[in-house]
């Protein structure tokens, strides 16, 4: 009886591993995306300054950053979700085969489909602050420093 209880305890600890791993990867991905947005804005300061000097409005600059992030995130989701589901199913099949249990993977497709707009919404939320910072740049200050 002691061995079975110990095995059950180990299983509950292992059962949380995918959730913890998914959460950590989501946080890491969000941080990388945020860094990309900030770095992209800093590298393109001169280009935005020229566009603003030619008449681009603040809200247009914010829209440009939002569209850039939306397209990048959309392409990443479009490529990553099917590959992730396929890799997860294949990995589970290998794991299940080694344990001698059925290899039928359960993929919560409504949840997977809900992730796409959620990821794009999070990306656009992250892009809001760098977009506002870029939009507030004064073209003369940026162009004068170069």
**Number of distinct beta strands:** 0
Q: What amount of the residues lies in strands?
A: under 5%
Oligomerization state: single chain
- How many helices in DSSP terms? 6
C-alpha-based Rg, rounded: 22 Å
What is the ordering of alpha helices and beta strands?
HHHHHH
Helix content: over 70%
State the major sheet: none
Mean pLDDT: 85
Overall geometry: elongated
Alpha-carbon distance between the termini?
75 Å
For the record, the count of structural domains works out to: 1
Q: Low-confidence parts, pLDDT < 50 over ≥5 residues?
A: none
Structural class: mainly alpha
Structure description:
The protein is mainly α and 146 residues long. The protein has one domain (2-144). It has 6 helices and no strands. It has helices spanning 2-15, 17-43, 45-53, 58-99, 109-135, 139-144. 12% of the residues are buried. The model has no long low-confidence stretch (mean pLDDT 85).
């Amino acid at each position: 009886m002691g061995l079975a209880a110990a095995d059950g305890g180990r299983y509950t600890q292992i059962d949380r591993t995918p959730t913890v791993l998914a959460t950590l990867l989501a946080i890491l991905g969000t941080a990388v995306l945020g860094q990309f947005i900030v770095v992209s804005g800093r590298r393109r300061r001169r280009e935005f300054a020229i566009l603003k000097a030619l008449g681009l409005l603040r809200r247009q600059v914010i829209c440009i950053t939002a569209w850039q992030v939306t397209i990048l995130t959309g392409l990443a989701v479009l490529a990553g979700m099917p590959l992730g589901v396929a890799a997860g199913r294949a990995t589970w099949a290998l794991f299940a085969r080694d344990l001698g249990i059925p290899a039928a993977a359960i993929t919560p497709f409504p949840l997977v489909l809900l992730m796409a707009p959620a990821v794009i919404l999070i990306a656009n939320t992250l892009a809001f602050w760098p977009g506002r910072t870029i939009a507030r740049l004064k073209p003369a200050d940026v162009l004068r420093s170069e």
